[in-house]
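Lab notes, practical 5.
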Amino acid sequence: MVAKDSIELDCKSLEEEKTAVDAQITEIPSIFRIPQGTLSDKKPSVSSSSLAIPIIDFADLAASREFVVEKVKDASEKWGFFQVINHGVPLSVLEEIKDAVVRFHDEDPEVKNSYFSRDFSKTFIYHNNFELYSSKNGNWRDSFAAYMVPPDRPNPEDLPVACRDAMIEYAKHVMSLGGLLFELLSEALGLNSEMLKSKGCMKGLLMAGHYYPPCPQPDLTLGVSKHSDNSFITILLQDQIGGLQVLHQDCWVDVSPIPGALVIYIGDHLQLMTNDKFKSVEHRVLANRDRPRVSFGCFYSSQMNPNPTVYGPIKELLSEENPPKYREMTIQEYTKGYIEKRLDGTSHLSCYRI
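Output from the prediction step:
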């Protein structure tokens, strides 16, 4: 069905792609084809150990918190990305949330489509690309997303049975881990450990399950286009398929899957608040031919939910030598512009530079 160029633009779900792949199509629809040269502009670098994503062992916290804080500081300043192991989230919980993504995406189309929406204020939505109405190209993935914080959300009945219990359980662990991460990041900035939490960085948590079907022409599309995140921080669980890449020193570097690890990356809001001390870096996901890929992201941001807090560079980090580089913003204002701008390979932060 999707091999036809006449694909309907109001059909955004990748269910058609999955069905078509099962039917052994050999060409992807034109709407998912990216401009020639997009994938070949920068090559992955895997040969040098200096271009390996930092790995931080949280088991070291018991011996030396200062040692871990220094590792977090170095990774946040130089990479904006790091992986954590021994983070306290049970392996069984990690496996269950990945299984929940597969369960939902294996549901009958009519079940999934009952959740299809482009209203991002809803508790739970199912969609393909949040920016596809304004973008020239679609990404080769399906996603569902739900706001799990603030505390009055969600009503469990608003979540699909296929992933309800797993999401509620995972949210508990991620909120605990997020609290620790914001403490370590605050200390890495030379601030009180409660500083970032006191600024409302944990007011909102958006959780998203991503399913990337096998692609017959992976060189012609992307699982996710190049972008930085509309968040304070993001916690990502990925399976063992691979495909996530981060832009570092003008090279695309693979974020190699580590069993039981979680990938942490700095979002746009935190780069703004730290006045460029911590980096929100561009990343992307490659499509693959052979097997489906599953990931689960947790975004600390209120996004479209009401949040009157005004964010700007943290005053304690500013000085005559380090004046503010950004104007203030609200998360809702930033998110609105982020969605309208679409994933065009440029950072929305540039709109807020002084």
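Observations recorded by the TA: The chain has one domain: 56-352. The chain has a mean pLDDT of 87.
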